[in-house]
């Protein structure tokens, strides 16, 4: 099993005799003595912390279940290991714990020689130890056993014919409950028929360990959607249900409230009094809008919508009364909460906002020939071009909505929501910055019209959720190092945009300390040739104050150099003579020689890295993540038109730039001594 509960939540329902107990199962991965060091007892300080947790659970009416995972290296036939196991559980029992679980999930089926001689099978070994521990602890009313085959997909050859499960069902004492996750580790749905089959094999109703909202297997995903896909009719086939929640506390409001609604419906069905489905509302949710005040949505149920209203209150108004209004901080609006939930819905399905984003991006990429330079030799109809631009406008507006949501989360009055959810919305904001720039670039007709290949697969297959799927639709989507980085320590709500270069961006400006006084000199030397000969690979980064960075690229340096020698450099040599009037000194002469020297790169470099780029940003740009997005957007454009590799030049003294590029997969190729100009050449394949 890939997930364990890590926070104290009122998990409902869990049932041994009655569906009325709230339960917390303790099995955190950061407690080394839970799994890796299971033989070691807790220190006095650790004992005190664990006892406090047990007492806190009891004071809140929760059944505290202590789970231990000895399966990785236990020798089942070893009396020493059995003694250590009993000692560990006795220590926890003495702290007041009265409910226990033995977990044998995610381990190898093989046994050592002594176990092979002592037991007829792997299941026999596990069951023997579990039964003895159950007796040793005095047959507690709550004792859970997690089998190695804990879902249908792990059973060999099937649930009904699995020798492992048949042994567990036959030999495990009836007072021990068996944990089950459904058809999969993360089951989209649970059906009464599949659970009835499991119940028949185990000779007892299974206890569901529900991983629907567990997110500790993917650092880029969080699940804010409702508890669904579990009909109330499951009750007859279950011993109980434990929900494995998101690692982030604030992310579990809707999951837990909709679980409560499901539980209420289960109870009403059990009484034989069917009731109409009601939204989650109570006296505690005063101030939340009624569900019928929210526009109808075929995907989001009334329970979810009401839950979102409660979330909006929890994310905002509830916090105001406790903390007071902070300067510049406001609650998230209802629409923003709905957008947030729709972007981070459930493992197997996206909410409407995420679905629309993916559908539009997929369609725009597949039909980019309508607005490309040559359109594959076919001119698209005006209607098709208009359709492309309309859908592009909708996609760009949706990206802007996510950017605004990012800013709203940063300035939200609920700081707990900010720190729990910021890494996810920040990641998506940056990925959509690249996607938006890519669509803008396509809309300028910069694409060659060639088919843009992505990785085709079912949604939710790739890691990263919505961010990951958007990433995989981009030409550089397989380069994970361009997208996966930790968020900044200090969140900022500043809005950024990446767009193609426009002529209005070209403004000459001579600095007071410039060696050459001509206002165009710096621009001509650094970016002039690229902007004049291949402006389609020039991107601009801007914020609310204006342009704050740019990235320029050259698709084919070899052909570019020929064009440069033929037209650009002669014009620059006329504009900037090597010995102009009014310029004196060695530094000025050296600067002007830039336009009078041959500039070439060895064929061995251009064979693997035919493209070149240059990245510039203002010093006050402190969020390096947007610089990464700017560079990634340029690499996306170069890759889309066939580039297989790119290089750039960096001064040896520019350590920050070297570190930045190295983290994005660039490696040192050539040093200055190998060519006339000084500098380090870094390159990466695309």
List the helices and strands and how they pair.
Layout: E1 11-14, E2 21-26, H1 44-59, E3 62-68, H2 79-94, E4 99-103, H3 113-118, H4 122-136, E5 142-146, H5 163-171, E6 177-180, H6 192-202, E7 207-210, E8 240-243, H7 253-270, H8 302-323, H9 334-343, H10 352-366, H11 382-410, H12 415-443, H13 465-472, E9 497-500, H14 521-533, E10 538-543, E11 546-554, H15 557-575, H16 586-592, H17 603-608, E12 611-617, H18 624-640, E13 645-650, H19 655-663, E14 667-670, E15 680-685
Parallel strand pairs: 2-3, 3-4, 4-5, 5-6, 6-7, 7-8, 12-13
Antiparallel strand pairs: 1-2, 9-10, 10-11, 11-12, 13-15, 14-15
Helix pairs in contact: 4-5, 7-8, 8-9, 10-11, 11-12, 12-13, 12-18, 14-15
Protein name: protein O-GlcNAcase
InterPro entries: GH, Glycosyl_Hydrolase_84, O-GlcNAcase_cat
Domain GH84: 1-267
């Amino acid at each position: 099993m890939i997930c364990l509960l890590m926070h104290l939540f009122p998990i409902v329902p869990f049932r041994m005799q009655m569906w009325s107990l709230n339960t917390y199962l303790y099995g955190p991965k950061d407690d080394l003595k839970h799994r890796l060091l299971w033989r070691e007892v807790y220190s006095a300080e650790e004992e005190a912390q664990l006892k406090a947790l047990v007492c806190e659970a009891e004071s809140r009416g929760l059944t505290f279940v202590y789970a231990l995972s000895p399966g990785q290296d236990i020798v089942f036939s070893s009396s020493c290991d059995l003694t250590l196991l009993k000692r560990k559980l006795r220590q926890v029992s003495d702290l007041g714990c009265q409910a226990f679980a033995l977990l044998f999930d995610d381990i190898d089926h093989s046994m050592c020689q002594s176990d092979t001689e002592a037991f007829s099978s792997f299941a026999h070994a596990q069951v023997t130890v579990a039964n003895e521990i159950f007796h040793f602890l005095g047959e507690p009313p709550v004792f859970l056993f997690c089998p190695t085959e804990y879902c249908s997909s792990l059973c060999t050859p099937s649930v009904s014919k699995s020798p492992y499960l048949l042994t567990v069902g036959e030999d495990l004492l009836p007072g021990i409950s068996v944990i089950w996750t459904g058809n999969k580790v993360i089951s989209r749905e649970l059906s009464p028929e599949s659970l009835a089959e499991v119940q028949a094999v185990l000779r007892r109703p299974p206890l569901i360990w529900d991983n629907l909202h567990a997110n500790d297997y993917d650092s880029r995903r969080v699940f804010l959607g409702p508890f669904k896909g579990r009909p109330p009719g499951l009750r007859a086939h279950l011993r109980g249900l434990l929900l494995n929640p998101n690692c982030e506390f604030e992310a579990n409001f809707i999951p837990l409230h909709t679980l409560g609604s499901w539980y209420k419906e289960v109870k009403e069905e059990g009484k034989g009094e069917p009731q109409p489905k009601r939204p989650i509302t109570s006296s505690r949710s005063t101030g939340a809008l009624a569900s019928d005040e929210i526009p109808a949505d075929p995907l989001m149920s009334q329970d979810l919508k009401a839950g979102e209203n409660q979330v909006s209150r929890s994310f905002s108004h509830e916090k105001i009364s406790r903390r007071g209004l902070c300067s510049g901080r406001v609650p998230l609006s209802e629409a923003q909460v709905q957008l947030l939930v729709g972007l981070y819905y459930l493992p197997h399905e996206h909410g409407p906002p995420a679905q629309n984003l993916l559908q539009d991006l997929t369609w725009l990429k597949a039909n980019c020939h309508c607005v490309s330079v040559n359109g594959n030799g076919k001119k698209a109809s005006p209607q098709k071009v208009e359709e492309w631009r309309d859908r592009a406008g909708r996609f760009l507006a949706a990206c802007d909505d996510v950017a605004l949501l990012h800013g709203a989360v940063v300035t939200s009055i609920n700081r707990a929501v900010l720190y729990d959810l910021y890494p996810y919305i920040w990641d998506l904001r940056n990925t959509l910055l690249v996607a938006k720039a890519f669509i803008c670039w396509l809309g300028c007709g910069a694409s060659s019209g060639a088919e843009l290949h992505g990785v085709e697969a079912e949604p939710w297959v790739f890691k990263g959720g919505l961010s990951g799927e958007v990433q995989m639709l981009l030409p550089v989507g397989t380069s994970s190092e361009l997208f996966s980085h930790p968020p900044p320590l200090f969140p900022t709500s500043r809005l950024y945009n990446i767009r193609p270069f426009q002529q209005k961006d070209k403004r000459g400006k001579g600095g007071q300390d410039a060696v050459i006084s001509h206002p165009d000199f710096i621009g001509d030397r650094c970016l002039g040739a690229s902007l004049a000969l291949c402006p389609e690979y020039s991107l601009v980064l801007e914020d609310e104050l204006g342009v704050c960075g740019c990235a320029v690229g050259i698709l084919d340096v070899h052909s570019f150099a020929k064009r440069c020698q033929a037209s650009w450099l002669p014009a620059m040599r006329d504009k900037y003579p090597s010995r102009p009037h009014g310029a004196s000194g060695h530094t000025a002469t050296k600067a002007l020689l830039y336009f009078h020297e041959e500039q070439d790169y060895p064929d061995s470099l251009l064979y693997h890295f035919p493209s070149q780029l240059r990245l510039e940003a203002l010093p006050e740009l402190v969020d390096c993540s947007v610089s990464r997005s700017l560079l990634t957007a340029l690499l996306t454009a170069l890759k889309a038109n066939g580039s297989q590799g790119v290089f750039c030049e960096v001064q040896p003294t520019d350590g920050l730039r070297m570190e930045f590029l190295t983290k994005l997969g660039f490696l040192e190729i050539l040093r200055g001594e190998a060519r006339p100009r000084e500098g380090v050449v870094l390159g990466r394949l695309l």
